Amino acid sequence: MAETFKNFIGGEWVDAASGKRFENRNPADWNEVVGTHPDSDAGDIERAVLAAAKAFKTWRLVPAPKRAEILFRAGQIMAERKEELARLMTREMGKVLAETRGDVQEGIDTAFYSAGEGRRMYGETTNAEMPNKFAMSIRLPVGVCGMITPWNFPMAIPTWKMFPALVCGNTVVLKPASDTPATAAKLVGVLADAGFPPGVVNLVTGGGGRVGTPLIEHPSVRLISFTGSSEVGRRIAATCGEKLKLCSLELGGKNPMIVMEDADLDLALEGALWGAFGTTGQRCTATSRIILHEKIADSFTERLVERARKLRLGNGLEPGSEVGPLVNKGQRESVHGYVQIGLKDGAKLLTGGKAAAGPGLENGWFYEPTVFGSVTPGMRIAREEIFGPVVAILTVKSLEGAIEVANDTDYGLSSSIYTRDVNRAHIAIRDIEAGITYVNGPTIGAEVHLPFGGVKDTGNGHRESGRQVLDVFSEWKSIYVDYSGKLQKAQIDDVEIQ
């Protein structure tokens, strides 16, 4: 039975002022309505931002260790509800249960890690240039933060943004993707149950134009954190730049996996399958290009195609399912469009390339795992983010050639190299243009205590996760304490050494 969800504004669950609602359906079985949600607009955003601004006045004064204690309780509640949250997420966006459990665990880990920062969040002390003077720097919260999050990691990514923002003393307004609002509502429910004061956390659901744009443009929102496409990210950055609003963007990827001739090919094959087809390829870190040394290219490609054909598609809640559906009809049409582009450009379709059919797949947005060979770096399927279960194979003659191909893209999020040669591994670490490089591992996966993000069109230089995320959600303030009892003029050459 479909659940009825509401917005969360000022500590209360409320409907959109218009009373309008929209449905959220299961991509594995489009006949199943998971829930209905408020179809909000600018008026609802106004109320949420005002609630957050009011709460900020007192929340910023709560000591960071006390803020962290509430966040720690949230992590404990998430752990208690892990299976419930994971099963809802699978129904909502399609990926298999093992992956949604991992998504929730990422949120739990982020809660505990961010809570630890409540007792760190270090500033710096340093020597002043004058006698009898003390100098230091501290972190202060930014204010009201707007969070716009995607559907592929509907628990992990909101926690990456909200939890460090909250422990820094900010208040937040979350606008989740319209494909996954139920997971967001359950997450906000966890935070409410953990004890965050009214107005500190707010949730408003609805479309990007009616909800996202007013959130970005609202004058009381001091920071926007967005994860999504580079195209949308550019528009958000332009708006924020015009309004001198802080902006953190985590955008697209076209991630390469290099396999050298000396690699453990069995290990590389497992990594390729997981990297390309995990989450049905719907990850910004998905392995979308496999760059093979010519000596092993034919044999590796043959094995990859054989294994890709055997992957079991199905409802993510069913035991044995390895690949779930794409998130909606539009996404499946987009993926199939790229397959047609690949064929037109001269790539060779080795397997897949069409909507999946069979028992249990009739009512879902399933697509066959797809492998293209004879791909060249200039082809669109080797350059543009497809966000589906499609991988392109390119062949090279050397490590230098592999790195050149890996870097021949507008993106720079994740990357991978399989080799037994430590020298080659370190050359790749140094020379691949990406925010993440794996050695003998696939391109997907992240740990919460390390910074996450990329270079080039993958973002605007900020990082999520790790202690580096604190630089997104806090402002630095320099403090000078002069206890000399007299006027000392800084940057004036009149200090005598006695």
**Domain module count:** 2
In round numbers, the mean pLDDT is: 97
**In the CATH hierarchy, what is the architecture of the largest domain at level 2?**
3-Layer(aba) Sandwich
Number of helices: 13
Terminal Cα span? 81 Å
CATH topology of the largest domain: Aldehyde Dehydrogenase, Chain A, domain 1
Radius of gyration: 24 Å
What's the name of the CATH homologous superfamily of the largest domain? Answer: Aldehyde Dehydrogenase, Chain A, domain 1
Q: Name the shape in a single word.
A: globular
| CATH level 1 name of the largest domain | Alpha Beta
- What fraction strand? 15-25%
Largest sheet: 7 strands, mixed
* Protein structure class: alpha/beta
Helicity range of the residues? 25-40%
User: Could you name the ranges where pLDDT drops below 50 across 5 or more consecutive residues?
Assistant: none
Structure description:
There is one protein chain. The chain has helices spanning 42-59, 64-80, 82-93, 97-117, 156-167, 181-194, 208-217, 230-242, 265-277, 297-310, 329-344, 399-407, 422-431; strands at 3-4, 7-9, 12-14, 21-26, 29-38, 124-127, 133-141, 144-148, 171-175, 201-203, 221-227, 246-250, 255-259, 287-293, 348-351, 370-373, 390-396, 416-418, 438-439, 474-482. The chain is built from 13 helices and 20 strands. It starts with a strand and ends in a 16-residue tail after the last strand. The chain has 498 residues and is α/β, with parallel strands linked by helices. It folds into two domains: 3-251 and 459-478, Aldehyde Dehydrogenase, Chain A, domain 1 (3-Layer(aba) Sandwich), CATH 3.40.605; 255-439, Aldehyde Dehydrogenase, Chain A, domain 2 (3-Layer(aba) Sandwich). 51% of the residues are buried. The strands form five sheets. Strands 15-16-17-14-13-18-19 form a seven-stranded mixed sheet, sandwiched between helices. The model has no long low-confidence stretch (mean pLDDT 97).
